[in-house]
Each structure stands twice: as structure tokens, then as C-alpha cells.
Amino acid sequence: MRRNVAGRLPYAAPIAAAPEHEETVNPGAPSRARAPLDLGAEHAAGGRNGAGALGPRRKPARTLWGTGGARWALGPSPAITRREVLLSVLAGVVLAVVTTWPLVLHMGTRIAPDLGDPVRSAWQVAWVGHAMLHQPLHIFNANVFYPHPLSLAFSDSLLGYGPAAFFGSGTVAALVRYNLLFLFAWTLCFPAAYLLARELGLGRLGAAAAGAAFAYAPYRVTEAGHLHVISSGGIALALFLLLRGYRRASAGERGASALVLAGWLVSAWQISLGFTLGLQYSYLLALLGLGATAYWWRAGRPSLPPRTVAITCLGVAIVGGVATFQARPYLKVAHDYPTAKRTIKEVKNYSAGPAAWLAASSENRVWGSATAGMRDHIHSKNESVLFPGGGILLLAAIGLAVPLFTRRLRLGLLAGIVVCSVLALGLGLTGAGYPYRLLYDHAPGWDGVRVPGRVFTTATLLYALLAGAGAQALAARVGVWGERRSLRLCPRGCGGAIVSGVVLVLAVVGEGAGHLGHPVVPQPARAEVGLPGPLMDLPTDGPADRVWQYYSTNGFYEIPVGNSTFDIPAVDDLRGGMNRFPDLASVEKLRYYGIRTVVLHLKMPKLPGIVGYAFAEPPNAAAAAAKPIAGLGVTRERTGSLVIYRIGPGPKALHPKP
Q1: Tens digits of residue pLDDT in 571-602
Q2: In whole angstroms, what is the distance from residue 564 CA to residue 496 CA?
Q3: How far apart are the C-alpha atoms of 220 and 509, rounded to whole Å?
Q4: Which in 116, 440, 536, 637 has the greatest CB count within 10 A?
Q5: What would the pLDDT profile of 29-64 be if each residue is shown by its tens digit?
């Protein structure tokens, strides 16, 4: 018994394009119909009856735009072969290696792009893997910021990368692991956006342009030092799996349930990397879910496949469980540490005015110098540069104008870009901070966001999809132009389209690839390995403590410092007390905090500074090493460029009880 049109599911409705002719095929058999300039698009137009069987499949109209008019979420899924998937992954790997060259040759000695947050992230992944194996019930009780509990929650957790640390130990292994994940983050974005674009109806070259525009959006260069921000490929991959799975489930095709479940699992993994991207992705899922529910209700509430409903409920439960598990320690930290709450003043420091839309990172090869004047009007030059790229912007405008996507989808992508771009300015758009202030005041979780600009990550995906459509349309136009002029380059029309498409893809990559540094990462001296903890390395300040955090991957001994996204009064007190080390006051303070060993480094690598509050304590390591220690109850040993102090028993500093 067939359902009427009103009862048809949204992803099973017929395509609206007017057919040139019709042909009948066996259920599940691919259509041979193909537009002459679809550049690989296999999104054949066709309707399905209410039982899920294929009805007469209609050939798309022969238009310049290939599959113009195809309903993106309503027709059958395109045929995507394993070979095509593997080639997209290979292309992602090659582009990641080339754009970060020569990092792949120095995996165990260098890191990109600097010795700041990447060094801390190397410790982070190593700790999560270590804790999963040795203390799975207390993953967030890390070895840093001793004796404070839940110290992993002092910044984004990167839990989803923990299994990568099941193999190898020590600082070199942590560095190699981080570099592999760094390349993986760039790699995943390309095939993920490629597959999503293909599922939405683009041909291979159009999808390749979309993959390049997402993986190499100029904004990503700005965030290259933040692994939890550039790890956005899971968003596009999960959306592809969910869309493809639900489409196939509506037609009763085999394997649909596995795709749906995989989509929810990838969503859970993406959220497990941290709430910087997980929060905005969760809201995106909620909006898409509300839209699907509204359409289902308006369609007359047709019955849904029970298996799909069950897997959806399971997937939502898994995502909710992961989000809850990760949120609990952050909520506890926000309760116990008042400074962990993001104040309006702090959010305002990371907000920007409309000039951010025209400002690119200084590391950008193409637009860095050209937009320097706009960067002068931005307070946070490494967090609020939101220029999407001239080429990507032009291609997106073309994609918005041509009918490769339906009008509804194009308007939806445009609306998403506008909303995300406005929210990415934070409190800087209007004097009162609206509309972002509405999220901060009323939307759960947004009062914990410090950098509003990272919302622009979602906008880059939406830009990429439109840019892919624009690239496909432009390449098709070049192919027709070449065919009419009988150019040798494209004797049959398609050659020119392919060549121009490849050029557009490479141009997008070149526009987004930036100048990434590859500094040598310092390694601990042999004399420091195996010292008893709790151990404190000096000098201490924000930049140096990242390195000491990294050193602690050699056994994960306890250290009282580290790098966090908020100030901890007790840590500031300890750091400030080291100004005159070694003297009686500093030694008594060390005893108060339970520190047994101090390692004073006489030679320090050049580290990126933190403007405003990074001051090395003690300020002169050589002068500190020359101070007498008689009567302090400590012993001292000089080994190369290290001076090792062992803190013996004695009086502790008098501190008021908390």
C-alpha cells in the first residue's frame, strides 16, 4: 500500500527538476542518465514510492549546471564508490603533508606552528591515553596543577584523541603523536567535506573544491596552534553519515542503519574533543533535528521505520552520555573556581567589530599583508580574524546564484553564514553586545565560551559547500566555452572543465595555506628524568609552564603548575613566591604546597610570550643558582645547565585556611 504524497518522508520526496525523458530501472540499479557537464555528479533524479521501492527514475534536465534543480535532501543518495572515498582520503593526506612541509620529516623533533599551546596539547593527549589505561574512572584528575583535582578540565579535554596514546610513552612519543594528530586534523576535513558535498549533489570536482575550501579556509591558519579548534572534520563527516543514512533508511536500503549509527558515533567523538566545537555542533544538531521534526509534523506524521527510530534514540543517548560525562567536571570546576567563569569583560576582550570580516591572519600567504590595515582595528589578532578568503567568497557567491542547490538550501546556507559570522564577533557588533549577549545570558553552555570567534568554524563549512557549487558551475562554463571554440585543451568540452576545476581547487588550497613555523621542541635532560615528585621546574610563567607540562609526560609525575584557560589564585601565589628563590620565604612556600624537588633551568628556549601576565619567576636563573642555601634545609646539585634542589623537612609558610 502506497503512501500519499503528503505522507512521504522529506528525504524520500521526488525531485522537482523537469525531466527530458523517463526510463525505468530495477530497484537499486544506478541510472545511466548523466548530464554532459556534471563533472562526475551521479546524483540521478528519481522518485520513490511510499514503500521505499524505486519508481520511474527521471533523467535530470540537460543544463549547464549539471544536476541543476536536484532537491538536496529529498532525492536518492548518489553512488559513491570505495575508490572515490579512498582517493579523497589520499588527496587529504597529500595536501596536509605538502602544506605543512617539512614537518613530516621531523616528527620527533619539531612541532607546528609554535612552542605555545601545541606543546601543552601534546601533554594533553598523552595524559588522556595514560589515564584511560591506568585510572579510567579518574581521567580528569591529571598530574598537573597538583594538588588541585579535575585539572584536565582547566582547558578542553581532547578526550576523543586519547586512544592514540595507548602506544608509546615519554616526551618524544608525545611529540610524534601530536604531529600525527595535527596532520590528521587537516587531512580529515578534506574528505569529510568532500563526501558531504557529494551527498548534497555536487560532482567530484565541485566536492573537491568544497573539501579544499573547508580544510584550508584562511581562518584555520589562525587557529593552527589549537588542535581542539582545527579538529572540525568530524562535523562534516557526521553530517554526511547522518544524511546518507536517513536517506537510505527511508528507502529501506541495506546498510542504512549502520550509516545512521556511525553518524551519531562520529558526533559523539567530535563532542568528546571539547566544547569549543562540541557546543556549536550540538546546537547545530538540535536545530537540524527541530527542522526535521517540523517537516515530519507538517507531512502528516507518517510512520517511521522502527529500526531507524531505535538507532536514532540510541545515537542521541550516546551523544548525550558523552556530553554529560564531559560536562560534569567542567561544571564542578566552574563551581569551585570563580575565575573559571567567563565574565562579560573577558568575552569582550576576545570580541571584534565588523573589521574582523575583512581581516586575515598575518600567517596567511595571500591575504596576510593585504588585510594588515583591518587587523589594526582588532584587539585579538590571533582569535578574531574572520576573512573567508577572496577566492572562496567569489566562488560562494557564484554557488549562491546558480541552481546547483535548491533555493531553499542555498538560502539556508546563506542564513547560516550570516548568523555564524555575526555571532563570531561576540559582543563587538553593537554597543550593548547583542545579539551574542542573548546566547551568553540564556543559552546553556555559552556563558563558558571565552572566544566567540571560534563559532566561525561552522561558517567555514557552509562557505565551503557554496564554494564547491560555484567551482563546479564555473568549471562547467569553461568547458562549454572551450567546446565552442574547439580548443585543443578540451576537444570534447569536458577536458577544459576538468582542468579549470583542478586549478580552482589548487587555488583555494593556496589561498588558505599559511606560513607555519616548525620550531625545535626542547627535551628534558637525562638528569631530570626519574626525579621524585611533586616537582617544580623554574623559571615559571605561562609560556614556560607549557614546556614543564610537556616534560611531565616522562612518567606523569605531579607538578604544581601548568597552562589553563583561567587564573588559579593558588598557582599565582606559588609562582609569585618564586621571585627570590632560593630564600627562606620561597622554600617555606614550596613545603606548604608539598613540593619535594625543584629543577632550575639555566638555559631556556625562546618561547612565545603571553602579553600582560607572563613574568618569569625567578627573573634571573643564573643569579638564583648563585645564592647561598645554608640554613634553608635544602640540598643542591649542579648537572649541566640544571640545578636540582631537594626540599627537606622544615617550617612551612603560614597561609590562611581556604
Answers
A1: 989 999 999 999 999 999 999 999 999 999 99
A2: 53
A3: 12
A4: 536
A5: 444 333 333 444 433 333 333 333 333 334 443 333
DSSP string, 298-343: HTT-----HHHHHHHHHHHHHHHHHHHHHHHHHHHHHHH-GGGS--
Cis peptide before 78 (omega within 30 of 0): no
More confident of the two residues 278 and 52: 278
Instruction: Quote the CA–CA distance of 223 and 120 in Å, as a whole number.
Output: 15
Tell me the three-class secondary structure of 410-461, residue by residue: HHHHHHHHHHHHHHHCHHHCCCCCCCHHHHHHHCCCHHHCCCHHHHHHHHHH
CA–CA gap between residue 638 and residue 568 (Å, rounded)? 32
pLDDT tens per residue, range 506-554: 778 878 887 888 999 999 999 999 899 899 999 998 889 999 999 999 9
pLDDT at 370: 83
| Cell 578568503 -> residue | 389
pTM: 0.85
**pLDDT (0 to 100) of residue 61:** 37
What secondary structure letter does DSSP report for 112? S
Q: 118 preceded by cis ω (within 30°)?
A: no
Closest CA to 15 of 46, 54, 61: 46
Assign residue 67 a region (left: φ > 0; alpha: ψ between -120 and 50; beta: otherwise). alpha
pLDDT at 14 over 50: no
Please compute, for residue 21, the number of CA atoms within 13 A of its CA located in the half-sphere on the CB side: 5
**Mean pLDDT of the region 368-397:** 85
Using the structure block, give the residue that is written with the C-alpha cell 593558588.
Answer: 570
- How many angstroms separate the Cα of 399 from the Cα of each of 77, 206, 465? 21, 10, 8
- State the chain's mean pLDDT as an integer: 83
Amino acid at 488: R
Residues 6+ apart with CB under 8 A from 352: 378, 379, 380, 384, 386, 425, 426, 428, 453
Give strand pairing partners of 636. Answer: 645
**Contacts of 567-570 spanning 24+ positions with Cβ under 8 A:** 567/339, 568/145, 568/148, 568/154, 568/337, 568/339, 569/339, 570/148
Helices (H), 216-255: 218-222, 227-230, 233-250
One-letter amino acid at 446 equals W
On whether the CB atoms of residues 181 and 125 are closer than 8 A, the answer is: yes
On the 0-12 / 13-18 / 19+ scale of CB atoms within 10 A, 583 is middle
Position 376 scores a pLDDT of 82
Q: Look at residue 148 in the predicted model and tell me its pLDDT.
A: 94
Cα dist from 612 to 384, 449, 609, whole Å: 19, 21, 9
Specify the higher pLDDT residue, 373 or 137.
137
Residue 623 exposed, middle or buried by CB count within 10 Å (0-12, 13-18, 19+): exposed
- Find out whether 492 and 457 touch, Cβ atoms under 8 Å: no
Is-contact 489 495, C-beta < 8 A?
yes
Helical spans, DSSP H, in 100-200: 117-134, 170-199
Cβ burial of 352 (10 Å; 0-12, 13-18, 19+) is buried
Cell numbers given for 318: 550516546
In one letter, which amino acid is 182?
F
From the number of C-beta atoms within 10 Å of its C-beta (0-12, 13-18, 19+), residue 573 rates as middle
Q: Could you tell me if 607 and 547 are in contact, meaning their C-beta atoms sit under 8 angstroms apart?
A: yes
637 bridge partner residues: 644
Compute the distance between CA of residue 285 and CA of residue 264 in angstroms, rounded to an integer.
10
